[in-house]
Every structure is written in structure tokens, then in C-alpha cells.
Amino acid sequence: MDANTSPVTDTCPAAALVYGCHGTRRFALRVADRFWTRFAGLMLRRPPQAQEGLLLTGCASIHTLFMRYRLDLVWLDASGRVLACVPALKPWRASTGPRGTAHVLELTAGSLDTLGIEAGCCIEHPALQPRSMA
Question: Which residues pair with 29 in a beta bridge?
């Protein structure tokens, strides 16, 4: 793998873009793309910074067990299109995405409004690019 195709991991934040009716917004995004990073997610961690999120790839449901803060959730299809949003999910809850969900984006509560994310928007990030079979 070259530098342009290396996997993005939870420890390597990269810029993501939101394209929506409120214009284009940029935010930092960490990616959980392996079983243990998805499993751990944000459990027992501090809330993400403002303008920062965690993308759980290949994930259509989440829980907020062992968390002390609310999360905004964004359910995405495989191409990064926003299917649905859940504002301010409380700790000790679970949520499942709608049909077609391929990924979930976890953000600090209030980020949906700040970033202008709503159903129909598009999120762009290297982890959401289709992988070639070459």
C-alpha cells in the first residue's frame, strides 16, 4: 500500500467534509475500522472535541454503555450519504440505523446543528471511498 491508500485508523484524525443545504463544513474524523476499535468506540473516553467525530465503518448499530455524555449519531450508506440522524442519544442506550446503513458517525451532542448535518447530506472522507479490487 502506498501513502494514498493506507488504512485510516482511530489514532489518525483526518479532515472530513459535510456537503449539505447549509454549504460545506469541515471537521476532524477518527476512524474505527477494525473489530476492537469499533467495539471500544468512545466507551470510557472523554467526549470528542468540538468539530471532531468517530466513524465506525461496517457498523449499523451502536450502544452508549459506560459513557457519561450524549452523542449525536449520523447513519450513513456505503458512499457517505446521510440516511438519518439521532440527536443527543443518552448514555446507556442503543440505536440501530435504518435499512441501507453501512457506517455510523458519532459526534458530540450539538454537532448536528453546528455542522449542518441532516438526512440527504453527504460526508466525504478517505475511509468512505470505494476500495478497488485491483
Answer: 14, 53
Largest CA distance in the chain: 44
Half-sphere exposure of 75 (CA within 13 A, CB side): 16
User: In this predicted model, what pLDDT tens digit does every residue of 84-131 receive, in sequence order?
Assistant: 999 999 999 999 999 999 999 999 999 999 999 999 999 999 998 766
Q: What is the DSSP letter of 6?
A: S
37's enclosing H/E stretch is helix 35-40
List C-alpha distances in Å: 116 to 11, 52, 63, 66, 122.
26, 14, 24, 28, 11
Place of cell 466507551: 43
Look at residue 34 and give its three-state secondary structure: coil
CA 6 from chain centre, in angstroms, equals 19
